[in-house]
Amino acid sequence: MKKEIQLQLTPEVAYTEELFKAAALKSAGITLSESEVYARQVKRSIDARGRQVKINVTAEVFVKEAPEPMLTFHNDYPNVRNAEPIIIVGAGPAGMFAALRAIELGVKPILIERGKDVRARRRDLAAINKDHIVNPESNYCFGEGGAGTYSDGKLYTRSKKRGDIRRIMEIFVAHGATEEILVDSHPHIGTNKLPKLVAELRNSILEAGGEVLFDTKVVDFILDGNEMKGVVLQNGEKVLGKGVILATGHSARDIFHLLHQKQILIEAKPFALGVRIEHRQNLIDQIQYHCEVDRGPYLPASYYSLVQQTEYQGKQRGVFSFCMCPGGFIVPAATAPGELVVNGMSPSRRDSKYANSGMVVAVELEDLPQYAHYGPLAAMMFQAEVEQKAWKMGGETQVAPAQRMVDFTNRKVSESLLDTSYQPGLSSVDMHAVLPKMISERLRQGLVAFGKKMKGYLTNEAQLIGIESRTSSPVRIPRDKESFEHPIIKGLYPCGEGAGYAGGIVSAAMDGERCAERLVEKYVRR
């Protein structure tokens, strides 16, 4: 017999296996002495609205019956070594999941990645942090696994219409992620565990006969009229395939320039820009969990989500938290020398003493009239100029400009800065001078409002670290809503976050799968 029950538990009971089982069996009316009884959690979320934090749990109890496996996906991929090839540019989640789905459909993926494999990437990340040297081909954004590999690994998405979220989660588990990601309402793998998982995804592609090319940069497209036939590599080699899935991520500016030069239709796209805000994690826990000292041994590091409408020069724009990283670190995410970009990440245990979050302002195309002459690259050029200014004001290294939060709202340069998780270091700067006024003024309004929503959030014991600018792609590569194919260039499938169709690991993975399905259906199975 299988029984599903709903429970509201204390953190201690929810996160202690023996106590949870006792509570589940009691709720189901089953005594502990009864043999062949099994209980497990299938969904879990934290309810911190009241003074006492509760954990809402959906549980399954099996009596004299073997529990069904949590995992239904099995990675027994067919051999596609001699199958028809398709080309996938970019080995982030969109590209890797496109490759795996192509293999399932009996097609050979040729996965081309400008950066290095996950292990080799580490040396280039260390060079950014310690020596302030940015390798434009291998960094926090470029390389195997994409930007998500070394910048957090949050798996929460609202993109439920894009595909099967559970399937994506199960593929992660089949490649080494813990089954906890199938249970938690805000699942997270952690930047310390993602590299091994990404390497396992690559091994599945290779073992099935797919190709993965690292340190391999696409510099041109092979076009026959309005049909994409393949790509040209930096060494001059031409790679041909039945179609091209372009999954290069939101920071591949050279690809956007190439598309524009080739007169392939692209569009400027709204995005968001702002800063990272860093608090002590203990302060966020005290606010969110209503605790006087600390969150205790059972609750995970708390997170927050904030949004506020602001007005500047008669225009309303949203200010909102983005990619909040509890118990995390701030990292340098520039992709070229002469620019400064920050991002956030958390290890699996989320045990850093810092909490950080992007705090960004929506940027609409009508806000950028002075960049209109760049056409579809207008928002990208604006983004690049702000990053270059931040680099100059930070001292022309990867030292980031920073300011205490209340000082920022009071337009006062901070006399000193706080300790930080950001390894390259901070420089006290007037962030109003770093950010465009339309951004800084709206950000100031937003922070004041957030201080009223979360008492204690607006404090000089927190600081703004700039800048957070790679929130989403500033360019969209258009595609047909049904076929996912570019409306003009046949055989070109814009994919994932860089093309403007995803906003994180899971949504990008789902988009990659759909692009592979549409390409195979039209050009291989016809």
CA distance, first residue to last residue: 47 Å
**DSSP strand content:** 15-25%
Number of strands: 22
Note the overall shape: globular
Briefly note the structural class of the backbone: alpha+beta
Question: Mean pLDDT, as a whole number?
Answer: 95
Spans of at least 5 consecutive residues whose pLDDT stays below 50 are none
Largest sheet: 7 strands, mixed
Quick recap:
With 526 residues, this protein is α+β, with helices and mostly antiparallel strands. Helices cover 28% and strands 24% of the residues.
List the helices and strands and how they pair.
Elements: E1 2-9, H1 11-14, H2 17-27, E2 37-47, E3 54-63, E4 85-89, H3 93-104, E5 108-112, H4 118-131, H5 165-174, H6 194-207, E6 211-213, E7 218-224, E8 227-233, E9 238-240, E10 244-246, H7 253-261, E11 267-268, E12 271-280, H8 281-289, E13 307-312, E14 315-325, E15 329-332, E16 342-345, E17 354-363, H9 378-393, E18 400-404, H10 405-409, E19 426-428, H11 431-434, H12 437-453, E20 463-468, E21 475-476, E22 492-494, H13 496-499, H14 505-523
Parallel strand pairs: 4-5, 4-10, 5-6, 10-22, 18-19
Antiparallel strand pairs: 1-3, 2-3, 7-8, 8-9, 11-21, 12-17, 12-20, 13-14, 14-17, 15-16, 18-20
Helix pairs in contact: 3-6, 3-14
